[in-house]
Amino acid sequence: CYSTAPPGFADQLFSGKPLTHFSAVSETAVSALLKKMACKTCDLDPIPTSLLFDCSDEIVPALTHVVNQSLLSGTFPTVFKHAIVKPLLKKISLDQNDLKNFRPVSNLSFFSKLLEKVVMSQLLDHLNTNELWPRFQSAYRACHSTETALLRVLNDLLTASDDGQVSLLTLLDLSAAFDTIDHDILFHRLEHVFGIQNSALSFFRSYLTERKQMVSISGYSSNPSTLLHGVPQGSVLGPILFLLYTQPLSQIIDRHSISHSEFADDSQLYDSVPREQFDSLLSNMQSCVDDVKLWMTQNKLQLNEGKTEALLIDPQNSPNLPLSITIGQNDICFSRSVRNLGVIFDDKLSMKQQVSKICQSAYLELRRISSIRHVLTVDATKTLVTSLVLSRLDYCNSLLSGIPQQLIDKLQKVQNCSARLIFKTSKCTHVSPLLAKLHWLPIAQRIDYKISSLCYDVVSDTAPLYLSDLLCLYVPSRSLRSSADTRIFRIPTRKKKFQGQRAFSHLGPVTWNKLPYSVRHAQTQSQFKTQLKTTLFRSVYEPDS
Fold first, then answer.
1. Which residue intervals of 299-429 are DSSP H helices?
2. Which residues of 505-544 are buried (b: 16+ CB within 10 A; e: fewer)?
């Protein structure tokens, strides 16, 4: 019997059709999966992965046999349980002498990852069929991302701010989360909460027991050691098993009626109330975090209180509000800004600091590229700029929708400098022809592109449910024509129109409804994105066409 939740919080037992065994797969399925995998070689691989790809037709039958033997017997081959751990610095700016700044990534054999992918496919089918995913967990799930998670949080905070409410956002972080998972608790939860039984459960027992790893640094390797707990970072199944292990967290938070969003081991709790009810909110938030911390302790996880942050958002600048929140034995002072999944949220939700951070890092990369531009071709420069600069401009850019034009102009200057660097032109050169030649949409249109793409995901039922809940298709009271447009959203009406106009629930429908009928009714996502980019491109560079 495992104590897996604080008093009054019990795991919800599985009641659907259990997953009792994994099904054998065909050579065609293994071959198709093989072609989708990255050509990466581990020191544990018997042959280079590139050679395996070249000889795939001859090797696939043998691989399929090994995979099916493992699936049907419920055992994971011992030879696949070895890993070489190569510590990776989490950020370049961190101190290399502090071991906490390294992430212990496991390098696993290519064959191991192939087998794990086969199992993951069937495991995900079971989880999706029985709707076992935590609703607000966005990691390692199709069509879910840090951007969709942050977009929902920002939407809720903006609409609350528009209503004059005070909001509290608390960011929680775990210490070495993947490395401290208790296997017995995990197996108990897989069986009783997720309905994984018999041969399928035996497979996961075999997968996690008697695993060995060695650490390799600068050509020197340690002796192999047996892992008694944790799931391997860098594996295919490890992250999914971690999400299943921590699934009860959502239930605990929901009991406190506090909104939340999770991405792997990063959790954010937030709630909004009228100013006079803030003391109650603060007390409820502290109680929720206490229950979360207690659950983590019971489940061999540790809340990293040193990295816990809190952001107070008060649109009315009310006096005499508390200055901190108590987490465990620590008083966490409210910050003026917090870094949330790579995006800076400030206490005004202005995104000014986020724009400044993007510009700073982008200009740094441009200076680096500029120093070697004389030895690069145009195509090579474009590739570098796309991967190092445009990727920064596009990361979570849907959160920038509706921000003041002066902030958009700052980002546009970065893109303009990028285009001039590629073509080696002066600062006085008119930049629009250069952008058109590169087929780059300007910043404002790139944001519209992202917002429209998310709206299409909602229309096509592929978006996260927490985003779909924010939009509502317009249904006329009576249809005068059989050809009535069924792909427009209802634009919510608001008494006040300040920050709430930037919320996805408002700006999404406004942006989507402006698109031409043919674009909104594209049959596939690829067709939609092609037509959307063409439409936005022509609106900028061919306005009279």
1. 352-371, 378-385, 391-394, 405-423
2. bbbbbebbbebeeebbebeeeeebbebbbebbbeeebeee
Q: Per residue, what are the HEC states of 70-107?
A: HHHHCCCCHHHHEEEEEEEECCCCCCCCCHHHEEEEEE
Query: What gap in Å lies between CA 404 and CA 415, rounded to an integer?
Result: 18
Overall average pLDDT of the 282-286 stretch: 92
- Taking 3-state DSSP, the helix, strand and coil percentages for the chain, each rounded to the nearest 5, stand at 50, 15, 35
* Arithmetic mean of pLDDT, 56-68: 91
Length reported for the chain: 545
Three-state DSSP at 411 gives helix
Q: Say how many C-beta atoms besides its own lie within 10 A of residue 36's C-beta.
A: 7
Which residues are CB-neighbours of 541 under 8 A, at least 6 positions away?
432, 435, 436
Angle between helices 504-513 and 146-162 (to 10 degrees): 110
Q: What are the DSSP E strand ranges found in 14-78?
A: none
> Taking a C-beta distance cutoff of 8 angstroms, is the pair 236, 117 a contact?
yes
- 435-446 pLDDT, tens digit per residue, is 999 999 999 999
- Least Cα distance to 262 among 149, 154, 143 occurs for 149
pTM, entire model:
0.89
- Please give the Cα distance from 86 to 93 (Å, whole number): 19
